[in-house]
Amino acid sequence: MRKLIAILTLTIAALAAHAGTIQGPVTLTGLGNGQGWNDGSYYTGYVTLTFDGTDYTGLCFDALHDASPNSTWDAIYVPLSDPSINAVLAAYFPNTSPSVYASLLQADVLGFLDLAGANEATSVSLQHAVWGQFDPADFSGTALAAQAAGETINTANYGLIVDAGYARGRSGLEQAFLIDPPAPPSPSSVPEPSSAVLIGLGLVVLGLTRWLPPLPRLRRCRVEDK
Fold it and tell me: With contact defined as beta carbons under 8 Å apart, do 37 and 123 qualify?
C-alpha cells in the first residue's frame, strides 16, 4: 500500500512539473492578418491557430520549417516559462546556442507586440526581423534585437505551439508559432484540466492514508543495572 502511495506521489510531481503544457490537434485556419499579406513568397503577420477548441492569434517565428493553410497536426503548447522550452528550441534550431534563447524570444515577443495595427509594409518588415532571430542567414533581425535589448519585455504570458513530434526527434516538423494565450481563469472559476487532475490525485492519496494500518510504536530500550 505504501508503495502505491509513493507511485502516486511521483505521478503528482511529474504532472505538476509540466502542468502548463497542453497537447492536442492544431489547425492553421487564418493567414496574414486575415488579409493575405505576403512578401512575394511567404505569408507575413499574424495567423489564426485553432488549438484545443480555441482560436489563438499567433506569429510564425520559425523560417526553417513549413506549415500549410488549413492543415491539422498534433501539437503541444509550451509556455515560455516551462523548463521544457529549451528542449523544444534545441530540436527546432539545433544550430542556435541555448545561451541566446532568452534574448531571441524577447525580440520575437516584441515583434509580436509591434505588429498590432501595422500596415502591410511594416508587417512584412517585422516578420522578416522576427524570422531573423533564429534564421540570421536568410533574414536580418539585428534592429529588432537591439530594440528588445533596450526595453523590459514581459514574456511570462506567451508560449509556443510546436509539433508534438519534436520530442521523438522526428524530421519534417511543422512550423512553430508564438502565441499570446488568454488570461488564466480567476481563482473562483473552475480549475483547468491539469489542475483538476492534480487535485484529484491528491485527494486519492489522502483517502488511502486513512485506510493504512498505524505504524508500530517504537519501544524504548531500558538498561538495568546488574
Answer: yes
Whole-structure pTM value = 0.72
Angle between helices 120-134 and 101-114 (to 10 degrees): 170
**Mean pLDDT over residues 170-191, rounded?**
70
Burial of 103 (0-12, 13-18, 19+ CB in 10 A): middle
| Residue 4 binned pLDDT confidence (cut-offs 50, 70, 90) | very low
Report pLDDT digits (tens) over 127-157.
Answer: 999 999 999 999 999 999 999 999 998 898 8
Q: What is the pLDDT of residue 53?
A: 85
* Alpha-helix residue ranges (DSSP H) falling in the chain: 2-17, 85-92, 101-114, 120-134, 142-149, 193-210
CA 225 – CA 197 distance, rounded (Å): 59
Q: Match 535589448 to its residue by C-alpha cell.
A: 149
What's the CA gap between 77 and 25, in Å, rounded?
Answer: 10
Residue type, 20: G
DSSP three-state, residue 197: helix
Under a CB-based contact definition with an 8 Å cutoff, are residues 204 and 15 in contact?
no
What is 86-136 written as a DSSP string?
HHHHHHH-TTS-GGGHHHHHHHHHHHHHHTTT--HHHHHHHHHHHHHHH-T
More confident residue, 99 or 213: 99
Tell me how far the alpha carbon of residue 165 is from its chain's centroid: 14
